[in-house]
Hints:
The structure holds two protein chains of two kinds.
Chain A: E1 4-7, E2 10-13, E3 19-25, E4 31-37, E5 43-51, E6 54-57, E7 64-66, E8 76-78, E9 87-94, E10 102-103, E11 107-111
Parallel strand pairs in A: 2-11
Antiparallel strand pairs in A: 1-3, 3-8, 4-5, 4-9, 5-6, 7-8, 9-10, 9-11
Chain B: E1 3-5, E2 10-14, E3 19-21, E4 24-26, E5 32-39, E6 46-52, E7 60-61, E8 64-69, E9 74-79, E10 88-96, E11 101-104, E12 108-113
Parallel strand pairs in B: 2-12
Antiparallel strand pairs in B: 1-4, 3-9, 5-6, 5-10, 7-8, 8-9, 10-11, 10-12
Amino acid sequence: xxxxxxxxxxxxLKIGQSMTLQxxxxxxxxxxxxxxxxxxMGLKLIYYSVGAGITDKxxxxxxxxxxxxxxxxxxxxxxxxxxxxTSVYFCASxxxxxxxxxxxxxxxxxxx
Amino acid sequence: AQKITQTQPGMFVQEKEAVxxxxxxxxxxxxxxxxxxxQPSSGEMIFLIYQGxxxxxxxxxxxxxxxxxxxxxxxxxxxxxxxxxxxAMYFCAMRSYNFNKFYFxxxxxxxxxP
Lengths: 112, 114
């Protein structure tokens, strides 16, 4: 199993550009999550999904969109990138009834 | 409102000694879970230990134990016999079972001295 994979690892965007952060898991987990981690801070939940076709907002959803068309994939879309979105983005997944979240390696995004 | 508070931005401990990392939480949910994660300088998030709000006994996983005091809303992590490889950021987190959401504290940076 590859676990949770994220692409790209690094990205630099210009203000106003858009991009999609990819996340995939091969563990058949029904729950998936997107977090951002600002320098020196903990993780903040952006969006989460409890299954294909079902998504909901977390603490900091503004400026982002998600979709979940399959169990495996949970892409995060940034529209009109802003410097405030400079952060490390983590995707995670878990199985219903399990207490553990599995994290991807993260995507470091810089918006200039 | 759900909130996790870690009041120790940084901690030092001598190798082979025990250390306690503090975590307090606030929630109105009757059912919740408490977690600790380790984040080394390489950046990945490593799950360490879990405590359910209805668990009667404190959780233990090897050198890690969670000191759960429900009335005080605290969930401190105890690391026994610290090792140099324990130097990392440690995050306390809470899962709200009503809303399937996770909330993280701001972290504690632990430095283990030889």
